[in-house]
Design a protein that fits this description.
Elements (H helix, E strand, L loop, with lengths): L1 H8 L8 E5 L3 H6 L5 H21 L4 E8 L7 H24 L2 E6 L7 H13 L6 E9 L1 H17 L10 H5 L12 E4 L18 E4 L9 H13 L22
Parallel strand pairs: 1-2, 1-5, 2-4, 3-4, 5-6
The chain binds 3-methylbut-3-enyl trihydrogen diphosphate (IPE) (2 copies) and magnesium ion (MG).
Length: about 260
Amino acid sequence: MRKQTEDAASAPSAAPRHIGVIMDGNGRWAAARGLPRLEGHRRGVEALRRTVRAAGELGVSYLTVYSFSSENWRRPAQEISDLMGLLKRFIRNDLAELHGNGVRVRIIGSRDDLTTDIQSLLKEAEELTCNNTNMTLIVAFNYGARHEIAAAARRLAEDALAGRIDPARIDEQSLGARLDTAGVPDPDLIIRTSGEQRLSNFLLWQAAYAEFVFLPIHWPEFDRSALEGAIEEFARRQRRFGGVAPVSAPAPNAMTGS
Ligand code: IPE
Ligand code: IPE
Ligand code: MG
């Protein structure tokens, strides 16, 4: 890792390779306009479409979007059903275009509580696009980082019990490799809209050295220029990864080793 950090330090100023987005504020956007929350979520899907397109054009390699958290089940049944409907429609309407643009789709989060039609749509999206290389869109759906970390710990325990791994050799790499995000570099930049300044159980492990940009606008208002602004803000940050000198490019997989 030391060697990689030195290499990174001499690299030219880097654009974020992986951006995570907490798409928040759909409900408040709608309420401020006297509209139902569903309309905010619909406009949120349009913002997502714009963002995926813009991220691809701006050379982002990985875009992770927080679409539904493991805590969002606490919402009224009608809203949950609306959100499930929007996910289905998004995949049905947009999968062909994403595939045509060379976007690989990955889904993180627990599939167990989802209906079988959603489970098969998610599988179809992943399988159809699995060889695409232009950009990876990671949809965090029914995702909660604590659940993800606990599941990785359970897999480690099972592997130890079965003799596949020596407990003394369990480290950050072996845990990182059992997260839903295995093989994905840690996010460099996490953007949250709506003015809230918290992670709400998003990528807790992976965000160890992420830069955060919190925007006052609501998610339906997010567009290419907001994304560019966040990337510019990121470029002004000095990342040190615990060292003394600023590191101009992200330390490769500093925490997960994936
Ligand atoms: C984000 O907008 C979408 C989801 C969490 C599914 P919200 O629905 O949380 O909107 P606010 O935060 O209530 O305004
Ligand atoms: C986080 O937003 C989850 C998503 C954006 C999908 P929430 O609106 O659920 O977060 P809290 O409840 O305000 O922390
Ligand atoms: Mg919210």
